[in-house]
Amino acid sequence: MKNNWIRLLGLCLLLQTNQVSAQWTGPKSKPQVQKELTYGPITPAHRTDAAMEAFRNYGLGQFIHWGLYAIPGNEWEGISARKGAAASEWIRTWSGPTAPKDWKNTYDNLYKQFNPKDFDAKKWAKQAKAMGAKYMIFTTKHHDGFALWPTKYSPYNITKSPYKKDIVKEVVEAYQAEGIDVYLYFSILEWNNPDYLSKAPQSLEEKAKYQNFLNYTRNQLLELLKNYPTIKGFWFDGTWDQSWVQAYDFTYKLEKELRELHPGLIIGSRFRNDEFGKRHFDSNGQLLGDYEQGWERKMPQAYEWLAGNDWDAVMTIPPNGWGYMKDWSGLYTKTTDDILDLLLQSVSMNGNFVLNFGPDGHGNMHPGEDKIASELEEWMKVNSEAIYAVRHAEFPLSKLGYYTQKDSILYLTIFNRPVNNIARVAVPKNAKAVPIQANILGLDQALEIKHADVGFDLDKNTYYDIYLPSTYLSDRAFVIKMELGSPTKSSQQLMEAKM
Ligand code: FHN
Predict the structure, then answer these.
(1) Which of 11, 37, 86, 433 makes an SS bond possible with 484, Cβ 3.0 to 4.6 Å?
(2) For the segment 240-280, what is each residue's pLDDT rounded down to a tens digit?
(3) What's the topology of domain 31-386?
(4) What is the CATH number of domain 401-485?
């Protein structure tokens, strides 16, 4: 009996712990007791300024992870790092029996070889535009600390490589010339900076060193804003270590400073935490930043999980690995259909979907990425209106695909075509707006719509059946565009019989 109680207590504790740790990637619950906080959110919840509205309308973005890790491409001298490093851009941490001798030293000297002869930022930007990306996130500096811009604050930067030129500048200018907004990825955490600490500094010496690191971080961020004043935001990473978590007074002031210097700047929920160490959401459940930034290689399972916050999902094509990975064999790499599915999931729940590319050490995209980009381009040419500037549609979920909505236009992107070619749209019985016109994007033909009052008892919905032409064939998801208008007549009262 006593043992059962102990087990029950253990289970409760486990559930509680899981709830806490799942807070920013699962359903949100607001704490019942509100705390006095000095270091809560700086910007209002759900900003409505033009910059944030533009963020909400992007739909599709591109992430680019590029740095010294692109040279090895997750292998070295024919040996794969798969069993020794967490991801291709983490290859510096390669350890265990497969790791090359003196590997860290080899890695830290790779900058002497970084000379991407094929790098053409304009080519990347044109490809991104063609595939439909409206914003892009570029790694200025990943965890290895190597800066792709000529920073004054560290010698470990692009000017010391044979390439020499400012890569960040080339990327920012090329993408903006294509009308794509640029966000700068910036890792706080640095593996080989002697002033960096992962634990909170204890001794006076550690405190002084870490303060140097904080000053350096601030200087680099101010430098990025000064050098590239047209960027729209920062995409922060590597902020989980206790050293940073405990520096909440510094990070609060820094966020304020960055925002004051650059009105409209967008910063996600990864940058800083409150004084109780709460990251992404503060101790009162308020979002810390302008959008929820925890959706990395995972998706919210329900719209309600987002609790009305803006968000983006960042996604790799291989299961993991953001930097160039030469060898994709033996891995499940996402197909264009998988990516479209994730894109539609995101936009149907008011999020942006950001697809990662990891160019090689010469500046070329992986052939698998090129293929996906051109397939996305084909799809977006016809269907992008179901992606851009759309919002979550308050319609019962469809087994056929995902709804998105723009004012009185409802889109249903069909991934599961019904075998009877009747796309049934469920509409609450009291709805004021129902489908009154429909067509398939890319097909100039009005589709027949029939109001199907199927008569399920206790059903709160009524149904609109859209007849798909059996001659219309598509080997990818396709979009039914519907115009919503007033229902022409109320449904019959078939449920009145007594029983
Ligand atoms: O450790 C990194 C990883 O290498 C990659 O940059 C991703 C991109 O979202 N972020 C980190 C882990 O959260």
Answers:
(1) 433
(2) 999 999 999 999 999 999 999 999 999 999 999 999 999 99
(3) TIM Barrel (3.20.20)
(4) 2.60.40.1180
